[in-house]
Design a protein that fits this description.
By secondary structure, the protein is mainly alpha-helical. Helices cover about 40% and strands about 5% of the residues.
Length: about 70
């Protein structure tokens, strides 16, 4: 299964809806990444959902090419 990092709603794109979802995850995060959605939100793969991830998702949601795909 391929996962597009930053694509929190699984629509094969990273957009404003994903950014909104990432902010909500960041606010409610307990520092344990255990769901697919949380894995998609940790776009810099450091094991933590933080402002760096939000910045990358925000940039990607504007159409900037920041696609990161895991297999």
């Amino acid at each position: 299964t391929m996962i597009l990092l930053g694509d929190l709603n699984s629509d094969d794109a990273c957009d404003a809806m994903d950014y909104s979802a990432s902010v909500n995850l960041w606010k409610s995060s307990d520092d344990i990444i255990n769901t697919t959605q949380e894995r998609c939100c940790d776009v810099n793969l450091d094991g933590v959902i933080d402002v760096l991830d939000l910045a990358i998702i925000a940039r990607a949601s504007t159409g900037a090419n920041t696609d990161i795909v895991l297999e």
